[in-house]
Hints:
The protein is an alpha+beta fold. Helix content is 36%, strand content 25%. The chain has two domains: 2-130, Rossmann fold, CATH 3.40.50.2300; 156-393, Phosphatase 2c, domain 1. It has helices spanning 10-22, 33-43, 59-68, 87-96, 108-154, 205-219, 243-253, 347-356, 362-376; strands spanning 2-6, 26-30, 47-51, 77-82, 100-103, 161-164, 167-174, 182-188, 193-201, 230-232, 238-240, 264-272, 277-283, 289-292, 295-298, 317-320, 326-330, 386-393. It is elongated.
Amino acid sequence: MTILVAEDDRATRLRIVVSLKGWGYDVVEAVDGQDAWEKFQEIDPAIIITDWQMPNMDGVELIRNIRADKEDVTYHYTILLTSRSEMKDLVEGLESGADDFVAKPFDKDELRVRVAGGVRIVELEHELEEQNSKLEASNQRMKESLLSAAKIQQSFLPATELTIGGVQFAHRYLPCDELAGDTLNILPLDDRYVAIYNIDVSGHGVPAALLSVHLSRILTRLRGPDKILLKTQEDGTRAPVSPAKVLKKLNRRFMCDASNEQYFTMNYGVLDLKERRLRYSSAGHPGPVIVSKGEMKILQAMPPAVGFIPDPEFQEATLDLSAGDRLLFYTDGVYEVMNKEGEEYGEERFAEEFAKAVDQPLKKSLQSLIFAARKWCGGEPFDDDVSLMAIEIN
Length: 394
């Protein structure tokens, strides 16, 4: 371990250097503060022992320069040699960044103990730096993995704008972290029917995201024995499974228990493009908002959530839609934001904002909703996942 000794008095400096070398340390000498500062930058010593009063640059200024060196991330232990004993002087020395003091004329045993204490501190600092470096590398690998997982998760999402059979669809998807517990989709079942859903898994982070991705995989399987959105009829044709039965199947597969304690809320609907009719169920999820003929209505949620209780009865509703009608499906993260006074934005304000944006293009209206919610919370990031999906009948 290298120690830099800055002392303008040759005799004192020699005594210190001989003692330190006798204890097994590598020692570099400096004749004043300026000489010490130049050598510090060359050799990067672990410990600096410096006299307080020296020509060109005193010990306090030297320590201040060392502490102010922004490019130097290594910790250096500093010991001031001083004959000063006034409290104000000691305070000045500590405020400059000194770690310890040795009184002059110095006692050899005291110096040995002070230096040994500095060595322990430096070794601990080096060990901490090494651990932090390993932790940073591990965190970087984890972040890269999460970003890769997020790309996979978002690959299940539909295009942000779609037109199917004269009906427009648009969505916005804003995870609050790399991975989200929200998911949504717009899924043509055949030439006549389109399945739509948005899901909010309880909790946050990786566990919620894993279930969200798993649900996306299940709900996009339209062929094979494990498909749940379509049924094969006696004549061999396929037809949509009713929303309530889809939710019942999901509930059997994903029943919450002590091992996972996860459940999810969900809007699931089947839109009949020919009849302009939507059959849907909102299982514990915020009910959709409809704007029809200039009037806005928030449709009621239909408890329970999926996986929350065994063998529930899920309810269904039917909406007959007309040209110009708009529907909005969403998760609660967008309206549960708080302003500085602790007041929630609220579902009513959120729905009114959707109604006000009815003359905007569908995708832009969703951007307006996000902007209004962010404005309410002072521009702070959302602390929950946000997903919006809008439908316009043409």
